[in-house]
Automatic annotation (TrEMBL):
Right handed beta helix domain ranges (all copies): 316-444
Name this protein carries in UniProt: Right-handed parallel beta-helix repeat-containing protein
SUPFAM superfamilies: Pectin lyase-like
PANTHER family: RIGHT HANDED BETA HELIX DOMAIN-CONTAINING PROTEIN (PTHR36453:SF1), SECRETED PROTEIN-RELATED (PTHR36453)
InterPro entries: Beta_helix, PbH1, Pectin_lyas_fold, Pectin_lyase_fold/virulence
Pfam families: Beta_helix (PF13229)
Organism, scientific name: Nonomuraea terrae
Length: 558
């Protein structure tokens, strides 16, 4: 195939040879379109900084974008922050109209400055909160409230609009607070409740800058924003490399056939929606509420509400209605939303990639056919949106999730919503459910097919260390049907599995699984569950020895 080269030191007037490379991906895309039979675009090492999303369409079918010769080529949506000045130990930089929610300092993700909860005695009102303690916030309109555990599986984010001159009355931004009041309307053990309640964490005000390595974005002067950073010991503003992500989307591929990305790094993107007036009224997984009907799920001792429809957290690299695309050996890092999003299309493969330091999930697949997700390593995701699973698929047909490793995530490792013919095979999950509850290492819900022939198969997975209380290592939930779960290994979970859920399970088979504790309901399986040949071994050494052949096959191949 015809070879083109792009380098940060190149020139778009050059021919794109290795000696005289192009400078931008946009010019390389134009040159590739002029070649019949497709082209290979080789990215030389260094930062390829985008000022707008890079987009491919059907006209780009057959094009390959790859790192050249093992060099580290980074496609970045970030902006380096310079011009720091110091005041009382805090670094300040004038950043114009910059909007961002993340910051990277010498390659390390910095956290937004925060404090735990509201001071004093506080109560929720119809429009916000009242507290009897002074607040002392310097830029109230930049403050964001975090609500972990309104339901055990939720973590909402809502911005503040203003505080009273006296400082004890807080007005929350609309429509976000109103959406939350509508969504969270429930009764538990006879005690009704409405609204998100008191925040568990409060972020982004200069008065919270007490922990070294944290930052604040002050937007109190429109168009003249100030970035504040409290340095860690030894950091010097003249030598420290600080990057703020600016773009929300790095790459968007729509309607293309047989495009490929190989050995590239996608980095430095943000997602601004949670800090805007509509906020982030989270419900479950990658989904949040934008309005519409709210329905009730009845419980034995009350009810919870849930949205009739929800919206999915976006991804920073997206594929829509593509055929035969390949993403191989790439890294997704320092991203403010999900890493890779796949919508519709057919035959896309994600293989051998690494995902880390992401605000939301790693891979989100919706409505596609014959997508394969294999041999990927995922860790430290959901850093900002804690409900986000490592891998999630819904509405798919024939999706295969095989030999991936998912570790250190705040909720579920792998999630499969309603679909058909999903195969979840020989994956390794560990340290899942680190923050929220009611989930598992592998979680399925809803119908998975119409028969055993086109149902879901969950086989050969190893699920270790499902951490928070109230979890199920291997979890079939909410009317899951036509699922076969066999030869999986579960150890060190709060509960290994559960057989009685509402709506009930139908045509679900648990067969020849190994675990260190009996699942809930194993002694009285419901009518819709077949439970046979499963083995409980409480001694961990014996369990590991017995299942060594299964455990050796789980996770990515070298």
């Amino acid at each position: 195939m015809f070879q083109l080269h792009v380098a940060p030191s190149g020139d778009d007037s050059w021919p794109g040879t290795i000696e005289r490379p192009l400078a931008t991906l946009e010019r390389a895309r134009e040159a590739a379109r002029e070649v019949s039979g497709g082209a290979v675009v080789n990215l030389r090492g260094g930062l390829h900084v985008l000022d707008r999303p890079f987009e491919l369409t059907e006209a780009d079918s057959g094009t390959v974008y790859q790192a050249y010769g093992g060099e580290e080529a980074v496609i970045s949506g970030g902006r380096r922050i310079t011009g720091w000045r110091e005041r009382d130990g805090v670094w300040l930089a004038e950043v114009g109209d910059l909007e961002t929610r993340q910051l990277t300092v010498d390659g390390r993700r910095a956290s937004r400055a925060a404090r735990d909860g509201l001071p004093g005695t506080a109560v929720q009102t119809e429009t916000g909160y009242v507290t009897d303690a002074p607040l002392g916030w310097r830029s109230p309109g930049d403050v964001e409230f975090v609500y972990r555990g309104v339901y055990p599986w939720t973590e909402a984010r809502l911005p503040v609009a203003s505080v009273s001159d006296e400082g004890g009355s807080i007005t929350m931004a609309q429509p976000g607070f109103g959406l939350a009041m509508n969504l969270y309307d429930y009764s538990w053990q006879g005690m009704p409740a409405r609204g998100p309640g008191l925040p568990t964490r409060i972020e982004n005000d200069a008065s919270f800058l007490t922990e070294p390595g944290t930052f604040v974005l002050d937007r109190s002067r429109p168009g003249d924003h100030v970035l504040l950073y409290l340095p860690r010991p030894g950091e010097d503003p003249a030598r420290t490399h600080v990057v703020a992500p600016v773009l929300e989307t790095l790459v968007r591929v729509t309607g293309a056939r047989d495009v490929a990305f190989r050995q590239l790094v996608f980095a430095d993107a943000t997602w601004l929606r949670p800090g805007r007036p509509a906020g982030f009224p989270h419900y479950h997984g990658n989904g949040f509420y934008e309005g519409g009907d709210v329905e009730k799920a009845m419980l034995d001792d009350g009810f919870v509400t849930y949205p009739a429809s929800s919206v999915t957290i976006p991804a920073c690299v997206t594929f829509e209605d593509t055929t035969g695309a390949v993403v191989e050996g790439c890294r997704f890092t320092r991203l403010g939303a999900s890493g890779l999003g796949i919508t519709g299309g057919e035959g896309l493969t994600v293989r051998g990639c690494g995902f880390d330091t992401l605000s939301a999930g790693a891979i989100v697949v919706s409505g596609s056919r014959e997508t394969t997700v294999e041999d990927n390593r995922i860790r430290e995701v959901g850093l900002e949106f804690s409900g986000s699973p490592g891998i999630s698929v819904t509405g798919t047909h024939g999706c295969v999730i095989a030999r991936n490793e998912v570790a250190d995530v705040p909720h579920c490792g792998i999630v499969a919503g309603p679909g058909r013919g999903t195969r979840i095979l020989r994956n390794l999950t560990s340290n899942t459910m680190k923050a929220l509850a009611d989930g598992g290492g592998v979680y399925l819900s809803g119908p998975q097919g119409d028969s055993a022939a086109d149902g879901a198969v969950v086989r050969g997975n190893v699920i270790r260390d499902t951490l928070t209380p109230y979890n199920f290592g291997l979890y079939t939930d909410y009317g899951a049907s036509w699922v076969t779960l066999e030869e999986n290994v579960v150890l060190r979970a709060d509960n290994t599995a559960v057989l009685h859920v509402a709506p009930p399970l139908e045509n679900v088979v648990y067969r020849r699984n190994f675990w260190d504790a009996d699942p809930l309901g194993h002694d009285d399986p419901p009518a819709g569950v077949t439970y046979e040949g499963n083995v409980t071994i409480k001694d961990e050494r014996e369990l590991n020895a017995t299942t060594a052949h299964l455990q050796s096959q789980a996770g990515p191949r070298a």
